[in-house]
């Protein structure tokens, strides 16, 4: 088994008196999709924001490509090669695909953008991901479907030599055909050697594309298992009760009086 590209040990995060994340351990490996699942309020978004540098962890260690790192800001995460695609996608409707993919990172001088270079890079990135649903990289984002928007947001995240991509509910509110396109793209990211973290409530999507499943329950990582070693029912039990048979917590923490 390959060494994890991202190795998190004992991560804790509090907001005032609320202890949101408790001693979180998580491994993300290159070439694998790790699904991060859990009920609402389990701590998924907080964990992702800690990895992305939006929230600073209170304690714990993070290793990236085998070396200890400190992620204090989104810039630190980006420089390491960690990119996040949030559920709201953060795309500008009034700009085209090229402009969105290079937004804030434009090529060229302070007085003249290198439009040709950016357009070429955008086309090559989409082609490398086998994206065929976008006819022109100069199409305004406002004219794209939900699946196409998600595709652009994911392609944007891999444009910058990223090594780990975190996807927050990428198939939420998509139709069947668009969901198929996005799931295929998620697998292609892993096939290109990236470490992919997929946050999803859709168990069908998780079992279709994930190599491993990490389950958060009340801010604790109760299981990190190979997808092939668990059933749909077991994962649902882990999400809702924190345990399933001999997997997970010995007993729910909230039952202790």
From TrEMBL:
Keyword Nucleotide-binding tagged: yes
Gene Ontology molecular functions: ATP binding; ATP hydrolysis activity
Positions of the ABC transporter domain: 6-243
This protein's UniProt keywords: ATP-binding, Nucleotide-binding
Transmembrane segments: none
PANTHER family, per the entry: CARBOHYDRATE TRANSPORT ATP-BINDING PROTEIN MG119-RELATED, SUGAR ABC TRANSPORTER ATP-BINDING PROTEIN
Name this polypeptide is given: Sugar ABC transporter ATP-binding protein
Native species: Prauserella cavernicola
């Amino acid at each position: 088994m390959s060494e994890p590209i991202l190795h998190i040990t004992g991560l804790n995060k509090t907001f005032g008196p609320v202890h949101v994340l408790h001693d979180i351990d998580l491994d993300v490996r290159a070439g694998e999709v790790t699904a991060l699942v859990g009920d609402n309020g389990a701590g998924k978004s907080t964990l992702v924001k800690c990895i992305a540098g939006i929230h600073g962890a209170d304690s714990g260690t993070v290793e990236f490509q085998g070396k200890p790192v400190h992620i204090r800001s989104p810039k630190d995460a980006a420089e390491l090669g960690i990119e996040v695609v949030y559920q709201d996608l953060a795309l500008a409707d009034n700009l085209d695909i090229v402009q969105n993919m290079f937004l804030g990172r434009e090529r060229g001088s302070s007085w003249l953008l290198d439009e040709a270079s950016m357009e070429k890079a955008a086309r090559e990135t989409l082609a490398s991901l086998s994206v065929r649903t976008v006819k022109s990289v100069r199409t305004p984002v406002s004219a794209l479907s939900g699946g196409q928007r998600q595709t652009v947001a994911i392609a944007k995240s891999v444009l910058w030599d990223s090594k780990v991509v975190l996807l927050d509910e990428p198939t939420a509110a998509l139709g069947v055909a668009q969901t198929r396109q996005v799931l295929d793209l998620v697998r292609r990211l892993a096939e290109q050697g990236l470490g992919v973290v997929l946050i999803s409530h859709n168990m069908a999507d998780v079992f279709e594309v994930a190599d491993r499943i990490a389950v958060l329950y009340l801010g604790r990582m109760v299981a990190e298992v190979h997808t092939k070693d668990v059933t749909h029912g077991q994962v649902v039990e882990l999400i809702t009760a924190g345990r399933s048979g001999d997997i997970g917590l010995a007993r729910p923490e909230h039952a202790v009086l």
